[in-house]
Amino acid sequence: MGTTQLEPVPEPKYWHLKTVLSEALDSEFTVGEILPNERDLAARFGVARATLRQALEQLELEGRLQRRRGVGTTVAPPRVGVAVGTEQEAWPGAPGDAWQPVDCAEAEPPAAVVDALRTGPGEAVHIVRRSRVSHGQPVAAELLYVPASSVPGLSGIDAPSGAARARAVLRELQHLELDGQDRAVELGSARAEDARELDRLPGAPVLVVTTRFVARGRTAALSVATYRADTCRLTFADSGGLEMDHGPERQAS
User: Fold this and answer.
1) Nearest-angstrom CA–CA distance, 147 and 218
2) Which of 175, 158, 162, 84 has its CA nearest to residue 129?
3) Angle at 159 between CA 154 and CA 165, to 5 degrees
4) Is CATH 3.40.1410.10 the right assignment for the domain spanning 80-241?
5) Looking at the chain, which residues constitute the CATH 1.10.10.10 domain(s)?
C-alpha cells in the first residue's frame, strides 16, 4: 500500500480525509473487508492519528464503516431500505417479508400499545419478536403486538411457543383483509435490550418505525421496529429499489 498525500484544501483536514477515504473504500475494498490499522492508514495519508480517527468516526456515523468487537473496522454493507411511503401494503409475514421470526409470548403490552390497540386493562396480547439481518449482521429488531381477537383461529397445540408460535400468529394474520396501514418514524436511542440484539452500545442512535395495521375498522396489529441508524436509509413510494453506484469495486481475491 503506497503513500497518498492530501492536497491543501480550505475545509477541515479530517473532513477532506473522510472524502479521500470514502473514495478508497469504493475502489480498493469490498464489503466486510477489514481496514489496515490506524498507524498504517495515518502513514499512508500523511496525517496524525487523531485526524484519522475523526475521519473514521465520521464514516462510521454515515454508515460506510462498522467497528466490530474482536474484529476491527470493516467496510459496511449497503444500507437497508426502510419504506415509509410505500403503496405496497401487506401483513407482516407475507411473501417477500425480510424479517425472521424469533419468538412469541403472551403478555400485557406497554400502556402506549394498549391505547393504540384499545385492549382491555390487563389483557394479554401475542408479542411476536422478529429480527432482520443483512450480510450476516443484525440491522433491526421488531416487536409485533397482536390481540387475540385478530387471530381467533390460532391453536396452541401445533405451535405452543418459540419461533413456531410466532410463525403461527403471522400465518393467522394473513386470513384478515387488510384495510390499510400507517407508519411513523422517529430518531431514538438504543435501550439495553435493543443494543444486545443489534450489537450496539446502549444509547446508540436508532430509527424507531411504528406501523399500525388496520382491519375491520380497528387496529388489528401494531409493529414497533428498531433499526440501527448507521445501516438504514428511508425510502419513499417505489424508490426502495434505487441503488447508488459509488464507483468501481475491487473483486475479492
Assistant:
1) 11
2) 162
3) 75
4) yes
5) 13-75
Q: Which grid cell sits at 193?
A: 435490550
CATH for the stretch 13-75 = 1.10.10.10
pLDDT in tens, 91-131: 999 998 989 999 999 999 999 999 999 998 889 999 999 99
**Backbone CA torsion sign across 92, 169, 206, 115:** positive
Choose among 8, 15, 13, 24: nearest CA to 58: 15
| pLDDT digits 0-9 by tens, 163-174 | 999 999 999 999
Pairing of strands 218-228, 137-146: antiparallel
Contact indicator for 217, 179 with CB cutoff of 8 Å: yes
> Concatenated DSSP letters for 20-71?
HHHHHHHHH--TTPBPPPHHHHHHHHT--HHHHHHHHHHHHHTTSEEEETTT
| Strand-strand pairing, 205-215 and 218-228 | antiparallel
